[in-house]
Design brief:
11 helices; single chain; Hypothetical protein af1432; mainly alpha
């Protein structure tokens, strides 16, 4: 599903579509569909914050530069660019992709021409903070938005992406080894006690809560997980 481009600067939309979206590789589980979903969810969260559906306080905006504190509103263009860039560094290095993505954002002449230095710093920090495995809470509300938006709510889509990622990074693994990876990754991220992915949703989201509950049921044992993975991969 496409993001709501109507709230964005058309020049920025055209640039991202022509120069950033085209660089995402669907083979590694973080393709354009995922990026567009993160952008859509980021803008949805931004709208809910701006219309008061999500309540915020001055504390939520405390680490932002003065130009972003008053009024306490989320900049849609910033949120869109953050979401569009957040996984771009995977084309070079998966483990360091958050750092590479942030560096590329700061080095983008077009983006630099359209945002102040203070805004660029917030955007780069948000990109660096988005990873679910990051133990620290994002520094700003923009980081919380992209981190929350990066949490898919479709169990089967998450399993497909985990499987595709493993196959892309480790093409020599056996089918059984690839499935082992998916099972262990999803259990640690969503189903086990203290699952790190659960901690990276910073706003109320009933769909996300339902997804976590479903994964707790799916991951009860490997046999149950394999049945559901087959459904996700269209092998049932």
């Amino acid at each position: 599903m496409e993001p709501d481009y109507s709230v964005l600067n058309p020049e920025i939309v055209d640039y991202i579509r022509d120069n950033i979206f085209s660089r995402y590789n669907p083979a590694n589980g973080h393709g354009l569909d995922h990026i567009k979903n993160v952008a859509r969810r980021s803008l949805d969260l931004a709208k809910r914050i701006n219309d008061g559906s999500i309540k915020t306080t001055a504390k939520d905006f405390k680490n932002l530069p003065e130009e972003l504190k008053n009024p306490r509103k989320i900049d849609y263009d910033m949120s869109f660019v953050i979401a569009s860039y957040h996984d771009l560094g995977r084309e070079k290095n998966n483990k360091l992709h958050h750092l590479i993505s942030a560096a590329w954002l700061l080095d983008d002449d077009f983006i630099e021409d359209h945002f102040s230095r203070a805004k660029l710093r917030v955007m780069a920090d948000a990109v660096m903070d988005h990873r679910a495995s990051n133990e620290l809470v994002p520094a700003t509300i923009y980081g919380k938005i992209v981190s929350s938006a990066d949490r898919d709510t479709d169990c089967y889509d998450i399993m497909r992406r985990a499987y595709a990622y493993n196959r892309h990074i480790y093409p020599d693994k056996t089918e059984s080894e690839a499935r082992d990876f998916c099972y262990e990754k999803i259990c640690i991220k969503f189903a086990n006690k203290g699952a790190y992915g659960v901690k990276k949703m910073f706003f109320d989201n009933p769909e996300f809560d339902a997804m976590v509950k479903k994964f707790q049921e799916i991951c009860v044992d490997r046999a149950t997980f394999d049945v559901e993975l087959d459904k996700a991969l269209g092998k049932d």
